[in-house]
């Protein structure tokens, strides 16, 4: 089995989406990532839940975790108001989001090869290299495929 | 002039330009420059590794390494954040009182920690407090970095140029504190006054927002109580070690390394965490720089410049000190003060050797000028550059000229006061 057989597409969002809408979409659908596309349809960023959550949380608490203990629910409204006002496009322009950092893998990579790349990069998903609509392989799909392959070889049902 | 001399000066000048323009990582520049100096025969292995005058200054390197390790461990306790939040509450959430408190904390911390580290510690808590107060953090951040550069001037370990001066001149922690402590205390008070004049209109007091600051619970910032106690104890012991280094015969670098070792032993922290805050690039930058300057000393360039400077001063050491102070301030505003002081230190040593006790204050002139001059522009000191980056990343960009406007005023006032101090204390 090869990576291409496990690949799926992810939701595409325009640059004009607000940070909080993106946050909500990811949370409500348990997504591992969303793809941000520009006006010309080009992929401008691949945003994971960590990326989007980082944009909602106050930068000072991420820079200094000692301050995280001072945050409580009273800060939430202010944080989400800022997230409502900012778009993912603005975050891309500021360099807070992008396509870099997402591991790419060849479509004909074996499942074990794909698993090696994901573990080495601590990645929950990898992108298939190539043009066109971006397609991704999730770690959960890789685990399922590995188990299925092992069971198949052992003749288990 | 020999080809070797021309080549060495050209390499040195090119390195200065590359460091100033940041076209290449600065450690790459100085290490490459050092390698070229060796290849052209301007210096050699014995000089590089074993000469106190023309080689790598191991005192500086190991003092920096020790303090980086100590600070890297101690900062994880949350003590700095505790102090900052506590002081904001002590100020009852009043914006200017908090600004003054934070300026004092930053200056005092900078006297014992690297300025960049101090700014990275105070900036996040400032952003949190300003968000609660609904005031712009820009006046706070600018005042803090100015206070950091001022406070760092007070001690041997406060600013890297001081380490170079201390090592080259044989001056200890107490020497710096006694000579520069009084003027730095004055300058800090003056800075707070300047901040009032420059920023008071931007610091609006809202009692309702102040209650949000009062609601902060500083105990939440302490992530590891045991680490806090251990860090404070070891930092206290290191301070005692610095203050008594003449009595004990332990050089500051040894004190810092022993303190770091003690902290590592007691906390049993993972090596990866201990060394995470060690800036290896900075240490290598220093090593390369010392080799390049040593090459110029070997070739007699520094001696010739020193003789020319001594001739120009012609026994008027007070005038020489004022010239060195103001000149250093101007140059440090536009170029990195570390290579500047590394170059000027052997030259100043020649002048002090020639002038005796009357020329001794030149060391303080060089230190005050180089350290305080860093406040003049947004690129005058590493802490300024780092702070502007923090401000931008958190949605409060400070432009080059916005910073420089306040920086120039502060530098002009602090250098004028330092000049008066130097003349009154040592030449009247």
Automatic annotation (TrEMBL), chain A:
InterPro entries: CBS_dom_sf. SUPFAM superfamilies: CBS-domain pair. It comes from Actinocatenispora comari. This is CBS domain-containing protein.
From TrEMBL, chain B:
It is a multi-pass membrane protein. Residues 16-369 form the Citrate transporter-like domain. One of its GO terms (cellular component) is plasma membrane. InterPro entries: Arsenical_pump_ArsB, Cit_transptr-like_dom, Diverse_Ion_Transporter. It is found in: Cell membrane. Coiled coil: none annotated. Pfam families: CitMHS. The chain crosses the membrane at residues 56-74, 95-113, 176-199, 227-247, 253-271, 283-305, 317-335, 403-424. It comes from the Bacteria. Keywords: Cell membrane, Membrane, Transmembrane, Transmembrane helix, Transport. One of its GO terms (molecular function) is arsenite transmembrane transporter activity. Belongs to the CitM (TC 2.A.11) transporter family. This is Membrane protein. It comes from Actinocatenispora comari.
């Amino acid at each position: 089995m090869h990576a291409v057989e496990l690949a799926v597409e992810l939701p595409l969002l325009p640059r004009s989406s607000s940070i909080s809408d993106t946050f909500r979409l990811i949370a409500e659908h348990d997504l591992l990532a969303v793809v941000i596309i520009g006006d010309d349809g080009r992929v401008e960023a691949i945003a994971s839940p960590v990326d989007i959550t980082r944009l909602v949380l106050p930068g000072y608490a991420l820079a200094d975790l000692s301050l995280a203990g001072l945050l409580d629910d009273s800060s939430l409204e202010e944080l989400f108001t800022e997230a409502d006002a900012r778009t993912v496009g603005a975050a891309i322009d500021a360099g807070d989001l992008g396509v870099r950092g997402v591991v790419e893998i060849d479509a004909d990579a074996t499942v074990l090869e794909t698993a090696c790349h994901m573990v080495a990069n601590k990645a929950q998903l990898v992108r298939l290299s190539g043009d066109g609509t971006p397609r991704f392989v999730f770690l959960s799909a890789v685990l399922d495929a590995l188990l299925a392959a092992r069971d198949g070889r052992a003749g288990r049902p | 002039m020999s080809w070797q001399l021309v080549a060495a000066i050209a390499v040195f000048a090119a390195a200065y330009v590359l460091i100033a323009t940041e076209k290449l990582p600065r450690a790459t520049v100085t290490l490459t420059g050092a390698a070229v100096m060796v290849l052209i025969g301007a210096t050699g292995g014995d000089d590089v590794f074993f000469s106190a005058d023309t080689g790598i200054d191991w005192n500086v390197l190991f003092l920096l390494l020790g303090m980086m390790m100590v600070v890297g461990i101690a900062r994880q306790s949350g003590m700095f954040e505790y102090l900052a939040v506590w002081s904001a509450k002590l100020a009852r959430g009043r914006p200017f009182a908090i600004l003054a408190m934070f300026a004092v904390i930053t200056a005092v911390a900078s006297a014992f920690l690297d300025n960049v580290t101090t700014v990275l510690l105070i900036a996040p808590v400032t952003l949190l407090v300003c968000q609660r107060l609904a005031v712009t953090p820009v006046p706070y951040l600018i005042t803090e970095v100015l206070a950091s550069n001022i406070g760092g001037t007070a001690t041997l370990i406060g600013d890297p140029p001081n380490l170079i001066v201390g090592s080259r001149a044989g001056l200890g922690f107490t020497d710096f504190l006694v000579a520069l402590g009084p003027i730095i205390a004055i300058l800090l008070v003056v800075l707070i006054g300047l901040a009032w004049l420059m920023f008071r209109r931007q610091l609006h007091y809202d009692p309702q927002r102040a209650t949000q600051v009062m609601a902060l619970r500083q105990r939440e910032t302490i992530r590891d109580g045991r680490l806090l106690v251990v860090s404070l104890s070891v930092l206290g012991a290191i301070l005692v070690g610095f203050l008594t280094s003449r009595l004990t015969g332990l050089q500051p670098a040894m004190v810092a390394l022993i303190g770091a070792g003690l902290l590592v032993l007691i906390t049993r922290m993972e090596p990866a965490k201990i060394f995470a805050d060690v800036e290896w690039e900075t240490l290598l930058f220093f090593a390369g720089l010392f080799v390049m300057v040593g090459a110029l000393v070997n070739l007699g360039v520094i001696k010739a410049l020193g003789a020319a400077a001594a001739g120009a001063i012609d026994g008027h050491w007070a005038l020489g000190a004022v010239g060195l102070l103001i000149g250093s301030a101007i140059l440090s505003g536009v170029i990195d003060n570390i290579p500047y002081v590394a170059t000027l230190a052997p030259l100043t040593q020649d002048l002090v050797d020639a002038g005796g006790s009357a020329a001794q204050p030149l060391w303080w002139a060089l230190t005050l000028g180089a350290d305080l001059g860093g406040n003049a522009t947004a690129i005058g000191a590493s802490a300024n550059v780092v702070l502007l980056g923090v401000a931008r990343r958190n949605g409060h960009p400070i432009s080059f000229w916005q910073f420089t406007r306040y920086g120039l005023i502060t530098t002009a006032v602090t250098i004028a006061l330092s000049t008066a101090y130097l003349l009154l204390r040592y030449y009247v």
